[in-house]
Amino acid sequence: MFITFEGIEGTGKSTQCKLLKEYLESRGMEVLLTCEPGGSRIGAELRKMLLSTDNRDLTSLTELFLYLADRAQHISEIVRPALEEGKAVICDRFADSTVVYQGYGRGLDTKMLHHLNEVAVDGTWPELTLLLDLDVETGLKRAMTRNIQKGMTQKEGRFEAEHVSFHNRIREGYLTWAAVNQKRFKVADASGTPEQVFEQIKHFIEQRFFEENK
Ligand code: TMP
To answer: How much distance in Å is there from the Cα of 27 to the middle of ligand 1?
Structure first.
């Protein structure tokens, strides 16, 4: 079972990932919770480069290839082995982030991005992608509060520092991409409390993995 979470900044992806991990474990599954960028040792190095506010001079293409490098390493070293061991894998962001951020956000061609993702994931696609949808203003406010709490405003804020219009393109891009990939995507309203959001997630998980198999 391979499940990914997507959404703009501040939608509560990390919280929902943890709640889902606990839920699947309560159903007797072994679960690996991981993330992109930064889910492998090499990926952690790439993550620092990608998100540092010192690196505002990264070109869109350089940024793209670093995300793809992170993904290729992560899939072969972490995700695929865990799936082969029979674990459920939950990943906080995955290939769709590239189509949406580098495509709808930075303006690179989405077809080309999808093709490069296919090369990077080498056949390992999630069975379900949960998009947490939230208005940009609320998301950015939540993300800023979280960053201040973590004391990371200076070093890991390259995307949060983008203009609101960028984040609006990301939100719209996600909704468009989810509609194109309806079979894999489910969209949850992320404006409620973590418990309210998780009720929706649980419903999608039950529907996709447990009810269909009855
Ligand atoms: P996060 O780990 O806090 O979600 O931050 C990762 C940032 O990287 C987020 O702003 C989205 C961005 N990103 C891309 O632009 N492309 C990608 O392929 C991925 C995985 C993330």
So the answer is: 30
